[in-house]
């Protein structure tokens, strides 16, 4: 049993589990960053886990909590230690220099580089060397009701993940059925893809089927994945750049970013504890709502009353602002904690 009928609730539990328990094969010395619903123009993944060098991840933090997009990465990764004209210092990006100049100014506004003028020329130098913080990218497709038909439908997507080599490891997460994995399932999934089975049943013994006490989901490995990291080749720079862009997006957004698209400012929006995860709950519907239905077009949407925003109740700005701030703080806190102590709980 997991919150909401759709995959969204299951996905949040998988993300929270990854945050506290990755890797499933046992503790490693890596720090972990977890994000959800991230990808490229061609493919979006449910859950993305970054395995990071702890010192590198701490050094990445010096560039601020927000993601560095590809233009900013071009500037920050190539910024020189000593003052230099930006056109001398940076490799030609393959597009007009005026866009690079704009990116240099954006990077300076964020404190990621320093700039000064030398006549008409903009010079820059780095504030710190951009670290080599990313070790591996692991992607997880969440499919709580994985049967042979669903496995067949997923197969092409997973084959794409294996073949493109952006990720180093590919998993499918499903809900445990108490039965052994059917051989037909394994036949339909690419053999390189691992299968994780989640037992969420222990988390639902409280009122309304919600957990009575902090517990958590358990995951077992039903099938071990193979590493799908491509062998070194001539397109390594391109691949490294695309992986870093993906990692930067994951670093900047995390998995609690659903508060940006849902409506915590609706009077019915609540956060409830499910095992070790905080997940959205709709008091009007009496269940956990999906991200898609929780929008301004929801027929039951009601803005929180203005009176809630007065007298600082219960958090400055009203509950909606409070929930957003809480989720943001938790994201920051987990990020800082994973830098200090890899693999720790929050
Ligand atoms: S009533 Fe609609 S908008 Fe409000 S919390 Fe529930 S699902 Fe979200």
Q: Which helices and strands, and how do they pair?
A:
Blueprint: H1 7-21, E1 31-39, E2 44-52, H2 54-60, H3 70-78, E3 84-85, H4 86-89, H5 97-109, E4 113-118, E5 121-126, E6 134-142, H6 148-164, E7 169-175, H7 183-188, E8 194-199, E9 218-223, H8 236-253, E10 269-274, E11 277-282, H9 319-340
Parallel strand pairs: 6-7, 7-8
Antiparallel strand pairs: 1-2, 2-6, 3-5, 4-5, 8-9, 10-11
Helix pairs in contact: 2-9, 3-5
Iron/sulfur cluster (SF4) binds next to loops.
Pfam families: DUF5787
InterPro entries: DUF5787 (IPR043901)
| Strand adjacency order, main sheet | 1-2-6-7-8-9
Main β-sheet description: 6 strands, mixed
Q: Provide the gyration radius in Å.
A: 22 Å
The pLDDT mean sits at 84
CATH class membership of the largest domain: Alpha Beta
Query: Rough shape?
Result: globular
InterPro entries: DUF5787 (IPR043901)
Structure characterization notes:
The protein contains nine helices and eleven strands. By secondary structure, it is α+β, with helices and mostly antiparallel strands. The protein folds into three domains: 7-58 and 134-251, Trna Endonuclease, Chain: A, domain 1, CATH 3.40.1350; 67-126, Orthogonal Bundle (Arc Repressor Mutant, subunit A), CATH 1.10.10; 257-340, no CATH class. Helix 3 crosses helix 5 (97-109). 36% of the residues are buried. The structure holds iron/sulfur cluster (SF4). Residues 263, 266, 268-269, 282, 284-285, 289, 293-294, 298, 300-301 line the site of iron/sulfur cluster. It holds the Pfam family DUF5787.
